[in-house]
Design brief:
Number of strands: 0
Structural class: mainly alpha
Helix content: 55-70%
Number of helices: 34
Radius of gyration: 41 Å
């Protein structure tokens, strides 16, 4: 009887354990096989895979750790996975590079590539991880099996913080169109963050609502699931999107502050506490609660690394602290914090944060360091010109801050000159939609510059495919009464997107000057207006179309409201308060009305003071009683009486 016959009954048990994913039992049975036959490769294979699944890396046998036991593709991948899980990233990358050619199975090749992407992600090389994820998803089906890869891709793009590649948005649309009912909640939440990063707040809110529905459905199916944290994340993200889209009123901000304060009193995880504290600082009154807000931000910055917040997220917290200092005019502390940020982070990292750029511009302007502003502006232009992949919002912030400074000093020509240099010098700027929009808007506000920038406007028209930029150019031509060009541009927009309502409306309007039949045909294509029910959309409409808060209409409206309120308010009648033991029916003698005057001004003392010659009036009391002696031009005896001798005076008295 051979060795295999001795343990034959256990093979069936091992197969059942593998089918049922009983990894502990697999390890136990594999050891039994290896005890009988130490060279049993199948048992070795089973034991290694089971230990990797159990994350018991210290119990892995030496023959596997050394990298010598790789008889098949599965174990070749398993060795790469072992290096990744034990954080031997450099060894793992070298192994992946050399091992891809040795694996024939395409699915295992893809798995090794995923390990490569994950290592790049964990070592903050987000650009490389994004490229690998896009490469993998471009060659696979966009189904529910690969949705986690899409989640990782979106997460990498968000943390990368640069311009979102078009391929990522196409993949996201593909997943939604093909698998809308089978996608996991992490997909929707991360996609909401991605759309917010692209300033597409409507889509971001839509994805967030999908996330909320899934969380509520899972909680309804299984009562043991705790959905409070997920719903808290939903609310925090919704508040963030709303704050980007429109300003909260004071009442709404106070309401949010109360909600956050109540949540902080509950038992929640530290990572959520950090987010709540940060939002609390952003919404509360920075003038009244400065000390407490500063203390909370210091706590956030100190604890954030321990709960695995990224470097970019911690930078955001520090920039919030910088903004808090600036709002309280603490410029010395602000300068120290900027120096600290610039020493801790690389230039690419802090110049990718648009709030940091705006804060530094503002601080230099308020401290009247105009030369440093020019140096900063030229430095930023050189960075963005060479690396357009940096955050396009940061580039737009740079341009806007420079424009504001030029506007304050009435240097419109200088601004336009800078824009021309920026557009012509850096080739990549010709694909920068924010810059295109800014140039066209600036020219629209100063039509006398339209002829000087005609060449750039035409270049933007030929290079840009962004409907918003093209519509701005079309509106510029409408203002200069060049309707034919405007029609061509809106026709181009309509050809790119047949559902673009603005293009349809403007084409109908413009054709009404030339061809009524065409105008009617475009009008028929415009669908009837739907009723807006969502509160967020109503609020957006109010913020977009109602007059600004500082306008005369709003001020007059507030005044009329206050007047109406004052008319309605009735004065409360209060009972008079009397001194102790006072009888209002028999009040007795009234107090002396002159009790507050000095003694020499009281009527009862005036006679006595006058008799003694001590009476004196207030300052200026002798005005109007001047004599010629008061206006002498110099020493003279003309107005003096002749003095008499003492003896003559005595004789007169005796008589």
């Amino acid at each position: 009887m051979n060795q295999k016959d001795k343990v034959a009954p256990s093979y069936r048990e091992l197969a059942e354990a593998i089918n049922n994913d009983q990894d502990e039992l697999i390890v136990k049975l594999a050891d039994q096989f290896l005890h009988v036959n130490a060279d049993d490769n199948e048992a070795k294979h089973c034991k290694v895979v089971a230990l990797l699944k159990l994350s018991k890396f210290d119990q892995l046998p030496d023959y596997f750790k050394s990298g010598k036991f790789m008889p098949n593709d599965m174990l070749r991948y398993a060795y790469g996975y072992y290096l990744y899980k034990t954080q031997k990233y450099e060894e793992c990358l070298a192994y992946i590079k050399s091992g891809l050619g040795k694996i024939d199975d395409n699915s295992l090749k893809q798995a090794l590539l995923l390990l490569d992407a994950q290592i790049k992600y964990r070592t903050n090389k987000y650009a490389e991880s994004v490229d690998i994820y896009i490469k993998i998803l471009s060659n696979t089906e966009l189904n529910e099996d690969n949705v986690e890869i899409m989640v990782n891709l979106v997460n990498s793009v968000i943390l990368w913080g640069k311009k979102v590649p078009d391929a990522v948005l196409k993949l996201a649309d593909g997943f939604i169109n093909q698998n809308q009912n089978d996608l996991i909640r992490e997909f929707y939440f991360n996609l909401s963050l991605l759309y917010a990063h692209c300033s597409d707040y409507q889509s971001s809110r839509k994805m967030l609502n999908f996330f909320k529905k899934i969380v509520e459905a899972e909680a309804a199916e299984d009562a043991t699931l705790e959905s409070d944290n997920d719903l808290l994340i939903y609310q925090l993200q919704l508040d963030y999107i709303n704050s980007l889209q429109y300003e909260y009123t004071e009442e709404e901000s106070e309401e949010r502050v109360k909600i956050y304060q109540s949540r902080l009193e509950q038992r929640i995880e530290e990572q959520y506490k950090i987010l709540i504290k940060n939002n609390l600082v952003c919404y509360r009154d920075k003038q009244k609660d400065f000390t407490d807000s500063l203390r909370k931000l210091d706590e956030i910055i100190q604890k954030a690394p321990s709960v695995k917040y990224t470097k970019a997220q911690i930078l955001n917290f520090q920039v919030n602290k910088l903004i808090l200092y600036i709002t309280r005019n603490k410029y010395h502390e602000s300068i120290k914090l900027i120096d600290e940020i610039e020493s801790k982070y690389t230039q690419d990292e802090y110049f990718s944060n648009e709030k940091f750029i705006a804060s530094k511009f503002f601080l230099l302007f308020r401290t009247k360091k105009y030369k440093e502003i020019e140096i900063l502006y030229s430095q930023l232009l050189s960075i963005f010109g060479d690396n357009y992949d940096l955050n396009s919002k940061a580039l737009l912030t740079t341009i806007l801050m420079n424009a504001e400074i030029n506007r304050i000093f009435n240097q419109q020509k200088s601004l336009m000159g800078n824009l021309r240099v920026l557009y012509t010098k850096y080739s990549r700027m010709k694909q920068c939609d924010p810059l295109h929009a800014f140039i066209v808007t600036t020219v629209s506000n100063n039509l006398n510059l339209a002829s000087d920038f005609q060449d750039i406007i035409e270049d933007i028209l030929s290079n840009s495919k962004n409907p918003q930029v093209l519509s701005l150019v079309a509106e510029l031509f409408i203002r200069t009464k060049n309707y034919e060009k405007a029609i061509k541009i809106y026709q181009k927009i309509y050809d790119l997107d047949a559902n673009n309502m603005k293009a349809l409306e403007r084409l109908a309007y413009l054709y009404s000057f030339f061809d009524l039949k065409k105008a009617e045909s475009f009008l028929k294509k415009i669908p009837p207006i739907d009723m807006i029910i969502e509160p967020e959309e109503i609020k957006k409409l109010e913020s977009d179309y109602l007059p600004a808060r500082s306008s005369k209409f709003v001020e007059e409206h507030k005044k009329s409201e206050l007047q109406d309120r004052s008319k309605k308010i009735k004065k409360r009648k209060r009972r008079p308060r009397y001194p102790k033991n006072f009888d209002p029916a028999n009040p007795g003698p009234m107090p002396d009305p002159e009790r507050w005057l000095p003694k020499f001004e009281k009527t009862k003392n005036k006679k006595l003071l006058k008799k003694k010659g001590l009476l004196r009036g207030p300052q200026g009391g002798a005005a109007g009683k001047e004599t010629t002696s008061n206006f002498k031009s110099g020493p003279s005896t003309a107005n003096q009486e002749v003095s008499t001798s003492k003896s003559q005076a005595k004789k007169k008295k005796k008589k």
